[in-house]
Amino acid sequence: MTNTRTSRSGAAAHTVGLDIGGTKILGALLDADGGLVAVTRLPTELGPDGVVRSAARAVHDVVGAAGLGIDVVGGVGLGIPGIVDARAGTVKHAVNLGVAEELPLAELLSETLGGIPVVVENDLNVAAVGAAHQLERDKPGAARHEDLAFLALGTGVASGLVMDGRLRRGVSGAAGEIGHVPIDPSGPECSCGQRGCIETFVSGTALATAWPSRHGRPSPVELFEAADAGDDRAVRVRKQFADAVAAAVRLLALTVDVRHVVLGGGVAQLGRPLLDVVRESLREQAQASPFLASLGLAGRVTLAPPDVPVAAVGAAVLGRRDERPEEPEEFGAAPSDPSAKDPAAAGRTEAGAGRNTALAGTKTKGALTWRS
Ligand SMILES: [Zn+2]
Predict the structure, then answer these.
(1) pTM above 0.85, yes or no
(2) 146, 213: one domain
(3) Residue ranges making up the domain that contains 268
(4) What is the average pLDDT across 172-176?
């Protein structure tokens, strides 16, 4: 985390990070040492103008919450759902935000803020960076914290990857899109066109189908309560869910061997009971396999801190770095395929809230907003 930006006054700069969602913007102000100084939360205005306007308001708000002026801010990072071109600073297909066409968000917000540099990143990627940053803050001195997957269990399922301290976006921005890896060929049909994808077992949507809310509370909460009370079917549904999360963890560990897998997203608001059942599944799987046992997967899984807006913090961390992604590549589809113009739109599912249209989105952390 070098290359800390300096503010216009020449002093080492604070940075602001924003986690822009369909209903709210969470903001975080970091000082020059990366310490969290202030947070804010504002409603999101929809549409291109609304997103820029409310983002600018959130920047001023979080700086004001710390009793500071905008002149201390040397950089701003944004995490946003939709198809993000981090290099160009643009976003499109952010359906929950009312943004369809490509929006030069970094440029417009920078103008609104009087020239402060702005970077834009996918919301899951900033969550991964924020989770790595937070682990390091909680247990300082270990570079190994910069090797992590943030596994978002939201409306959909996807992950953000920080490997050896660097964000892994992938050549087409699809790195970590594990929700659509099939784990059961005879499983339920998925919105992506395959069968038995991880997302059909693990997501908030899948849980709400398997165990509909009966008492007005989120279905994951009601499911876990019913299972604790001994309801046979609830026990089975919870076990299937836990096994599928464990499969996602195993998949991440066996492909990129990250040291930490941090569970986040709306379903992770279950907290400790979620962690317990996932670890139990991982231990069961390890019992049958000395190979898996040697990897110690249960010990790698943790929960995102409930009291820290990790995505906003991660966005602020990226606002501190002069780290630009390389040129995106276009490949993978036949020339006659219309999706060839837009590799990010080919075969991926919007995991964001309030949307079930496949094939037009990109990974998002898909937070369920049941406690917001
Ligand atoms: Zn799928």
Answers:
(1) no
(2) yes
(3) 142-303
(4) 84
